[in-house]
Amino acid sequence: GAVVSQHPSWVICKSGTSVKIECRSLDFQATTMFWYRQFPKQSLMLMATSNEGSKATYEQGVEKDKFLINHASLTLSTLTVTSAHPEDSSFYICSARPLGGNTIYFGEGSWLTVV
Amino acid sequence: AQKITQTQPGMFVQEKEAVTLDCTYDTSDPSYGLFWYKQPSSGEMIFLIYQGSYDQQNATEGRYSLNFQKARKSANLVISASQLGDSAMYFCAMRFMINAGGTSYGKLTFGQGTILTVHP
């Protein structure tokens, strides 16, 4: 199946710093990618929809200035957590759908710990 | 509003037996897609099976089959011949179309998840 890769898989950062997570579709193009956040043993919560070449669409309650999303190309979207705080510690996972396809594929996820 | 419900927080099954994971959904859109994903403890989301709302036949992928009851709005996952490696969290999800700023795209909403434990 199609491959979506996230980097880094694990990241620890100091409170107040920013951290960037990349989401790449390795063997297909995606005009739309999605960013989710997941707390332990809970469901995935959609944070925002990343659209190539335009501004991301954020879900209600998600701070767009804190979670910056950039979709620079048809194969890359980035999520930057700015001025990170310990409560931002979570599992972040992205997904993408190949153009013209039905299936939505997920990256491996990124574990963020803010200390 | 679109909604997905998984009512089984946890399920147990004996190795080599079949198990059904429940999923019901609610939408007024005629066109939608239903997915099942497996999430092991490592966190990755593994795509298992897809069913389109207009598909006449139930989807099957190896040991996975989707029991699609459109009138009841249910999309249960059946895993046959369970294996120890099947132990994981399973999520049902529904894709529906969103129109925003002149652009249409599909958006996924997830159920609460079911933790499946396979006993030897």
**Most extensive chain contact?**
A-B, 27 and 28 residues
Name the shape of chain B in a single word: globular
The low-confidence parts of chain A are none
Structural class of chain B: mainly beta
* Topology order of chain B in helix (H) and strand (E) letters: EEEEEEEEEEEE
Strand-residue proportion of chain A: over 45%
* Mean pLDDT over the full residue set of chain A: 92
Q: Write down the overall mean pLDDT of chain B.
A: 93
How many helix segments of chain A? Answer: 0
How do the helices and strands follow one another from N- to C-terminus of chain A?
A: EEEEEEEEEEE
Oligomer category: heterodimer
- Largest sheet data of chain A: 7 strands, mixed
Task: Give the end-to-end Cα distance of chain A, rounded to a whole number of Å.
Answer: 36 Å
Percent range for helical residues of chain B? under 10%
Number of strands of chain A: 11
In angstroms, what is the radius of gyration of chain B? 15 Å
Distance between the termini of chain B: 41 Å
Indicate the percent of residues in helices of chain A.
under 10%
Task: From the structure above, extract its key features.
heterodimer, A: 115 residues, mainly beta, 7-stranded mixed beta sheet, B: 120 residues, 4-stranded antiparallel beta sheet
